[in-house]
Amino acid sequence: MCPAASTASPSTSSTSTMKPTPPLFLSLLVFLALGNLPLPSESRAFFVFGDSLVDSGNNNYLTTTARADSPPYGIDYPTHRPTGRFSNGLNMPDLISELLGAEPTLPYLSPELHGERLLVGANFASAGIGILNDTGLQFLNTIRIHKQLEYLEQYKQRVTSLIGPDRTERLVNGALVLITLGGNDFVNNYYLFPFSPRSREFSLPDFVDFIISEYKKILARLYVLGARRVLVTGTGPLGCVPAELARRSRTNGCDPELQRAGNLFNPRLWQTLKNLNAEIGTDVFVAANAFKMHMDFITNSRAYGFITSKIACCGQGPHNGIGFCTRASNLCPNRNAYAFWDAFHPSERANRIIVNHFMTGSAEYMNPMNLSTILAMDESE
């Protein structure tokens, strides 16, 4: 499903002496006005691809079980209503937009994304998806990553009709891009069942090799489509989320097998980004070490102001890590005190810590540069 760009109906005057403006003339005025729209400069365009960590509501428009469209999701969002974000409030893309001084990017499937709002960018992410097309099949209808890239092509066509092909290419080339993939390929594919089809087909190291090779194709396609500043997050510490503590941990500690998956995947991803940059001849892809960003407050939660990183704010069962966050779930009174909002996803406050690392983090968090360095470099050009 894709929203059509809406067109505003011309208002009519009640003065009898006024002649109606010909529709063709109005259309020309609208085209000329949009053609002169300024491209984002200080508030550059922002595109988001990936899974539930960055989905801002696309799945609300799909028939899928991977949805965050009912309370208490959104309890701390400005409207205090669920938005499709898997968060108590703002998610990573919102907070990055905040730092860029821009309004949040709308979900691509939102009917509100048209006209001048297209120039802000778009969020193409969809909860439940992964690098592989067979990841998250249990969620039924989601926007797989290759479809997200098709939507970027469609987006470019829509913007070209507003500002022309040259300015559209400059907008996309100058945009910031965030992509978050990989976690679901483990928790919702390889480790989904005791003996999933993929775990029968591959040993864990071979599976990592396979998904890295597929991810490289995705990133290369992003570059071909015009992306020039791409933040790529690795997987977080999958064995430490409340869901996996509830399902797999016997010691109340992080599950070693899922931690091993992240420890195999992330270094391979970082090397792939370096190789791609070397092939291109410039630093297009920037590695965001989500694993370390999370582990900092998981291993020393009180130093970051959290009372726990082992129990989700919203949920049920051990660690509040069983099932979905619903109205019937346990709900903590102070979301700022919990590192995890639900069984898998960080709280808004944890997301703020992560995004601050994006902006100012040292090389162990952001490599080869952080976001503030990117912005300074681009400003000087």
From TrEMBL:
GO terms for molecular function: hydrolase activity, acting on ester bonds. The keyword Lipid metabolism applies. Pfam families: Lipase_GDSL (PF00657). Signal peptide: none annotated. Keywords: Hydrolase, Lipid degradation, Lipid metabolism. CDD domains: SGNH_plant_lipase_like. GO terms for biological process: lipid catabolic process. InterPro entries: GDSL (IPR001087), GDSL_Est/Lipase (IPR051058), SGNH_hydro_sf (IPR036514), SGNH_plant_lipase-like (IPR035669). The keyword Hydrolase applies. Belongs to the 'GDSL' lipolytic enzyme family. This is GDSL esterase/lipase LTL1. It comes from Platanthera zijinensis.
